[in-house]
């Protein structure tokens, strides 16, 4: 039971990060039908920018409180990622909206490699230690189960952000414009919606979520490097497909489910394979799920089948 509860905690933490990143994928796909494979690298940019800000603050103001340092780091990382997300949409994707779907997909992959290369030139190839500004001293709410304050912060913070996004999309004028653009951007434009602005804001919001997810991910594992966004990005894409890409609730559910499956798989893989595999093979579970979903339920858990009208 202790192992089960510990893996449950670990799965919720990792799944919360996947859900935040998956929201960026699903928002862009819901409006443009575009899979932005460069989105995972925004996670890396957010983490590396926050790391650079923390190192600067440690040298400039060594007596600053950890909470203030973390807040200022996020205050720098989020606008940087938002600006980068807007630039990507404006320069790389806007001209390809009416192009065949393969063109923006290849462009997104190219943007991913471009961001990784620039990050490698700026911060080098080495792994960097990410400062632990939130306590990592484990608590033991249940005997044999360890939970750190940073893990609690990640789960609670992710839940609050996801709830705020749902309110934004369902209860505000901006959210109504986003839903109208997702339904039919040409008709929305005829009704007075500035679709270019709405699409750009969608990229900006998704980039802000990626920045927060990057800081959470680096804080949880204590490291950051130029390629850290690639695998979480792929897993978040898997989570978006699992939940039903284009569906916000589906992205959240898919992220949590994927995190739990990955965590339980890592905890019990040795027993399931009679010692042939260990926890280092945990990544296989995400892609097994992706394959099964695409075969048996391509629309995802909360996705709906749609038909084109003549």
Automatic annotation (TrEMBL):
GO cellular component: plasma membrane
Entry annotated with the keyword Membrane: yes
Pfam short name (any one): BPD_transp_2
InterPro entries in the record: ABC_transp_permease, BCAA_transport_permease
GO molecular function: L-isoleucine transmembrane transporter activity; L-leucine transmembrane transporter activity; L-phenylalanine transmembrane transporter activity; L-valine transmembrane transporter activity
Transmembrane residue ranges: 12-35, 42-61, 67-86, 102-123, 143-169, 196-217, 237-261, 273-296
GO BP terms: D-alanine transmembrane transport; L-alanine transport; L-isoleucine import across plasma membrane
Membrane topology: Multi-pass membrane protein
Alphabetically ordered keywords of this record: Amino-acid transport, Cell inner membrane, Cell membrane, Membrane, Transmembrane, Transmembrane helix, Transport
Subcellular location: Cell membrane
CDD domains with a match to the protein in the record: TM_PBP1_LivH_like
Family of this protein: Belongs to the binding-protein-dependent transport system permease family. LivHM subfamily.
Protein name per the record: Amino-acid transmembrane ABC transporter protein
Native species: Aromatoleum aromaticum (strain DSM 19018 / LMG 30748 / EbN1)
């Amino acid at each position: 039971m202790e192992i089960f509860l510990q893996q449950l905690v670990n799965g919720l933490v990792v799944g919360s990060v996947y859900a935040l990143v998956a929201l960026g994928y699903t928002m862009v796909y819901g409006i443009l039908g575009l899979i932005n494979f460069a989105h995972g690298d925004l996670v890396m940019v957010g983490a590396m920018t926050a790391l650079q800000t923390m190192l600067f603050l440690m040298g400039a103001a060594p007596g600053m409180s950890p909470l203030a340092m973390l807040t200022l780091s996020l205050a720098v990382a989020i606008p940087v990622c938002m600006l980068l997300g807007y630039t990507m949409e404006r320069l790389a994707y806007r001209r390809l909206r009416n192009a065949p779907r393969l063109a923006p997909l290849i462009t997104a992959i190219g943007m991913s490699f471009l961001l990784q290369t620039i990050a490698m030139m700026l911060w080098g190839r080495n792994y960097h230690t990410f400062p632990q500004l939130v306590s990592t001293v484990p608590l033991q709410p249940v005997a044999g189960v360890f939970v750190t304050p940073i893990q609690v912060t990640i789960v609670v913070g992710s839940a609050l952000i996801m709830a705020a996004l749902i309110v934004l999309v369902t209860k505000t004028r901006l959210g109504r414009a986003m839903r109208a653009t997702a339904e039919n951007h040409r008709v929305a434009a005829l009704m007075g919606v500035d679709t270019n602005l709405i699409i750009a804001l969608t990229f900006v919001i998704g980039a802000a979520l990626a920045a927060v997810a990057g800081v959470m991910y680096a804080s949880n594992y204590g490291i950051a490097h130029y390629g850290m966004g690639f695998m979480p990005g792929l897993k978040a894409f898997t989570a978006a497909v699992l939940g039903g890409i284009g569906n916000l609730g589906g992205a959240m559910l898919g992220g949590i489910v994927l995190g739990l499956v990955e965590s339980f798989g890592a905890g019990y893989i040795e027993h399931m394979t009679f010692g042939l595999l260990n926890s280092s093979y945990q990544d296989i579970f995400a892609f097994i799920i992706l394959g099964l979903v695409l075969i048996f339920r391509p629309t995802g858990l909360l996705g709906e089948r749609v038909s084109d009208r003549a």
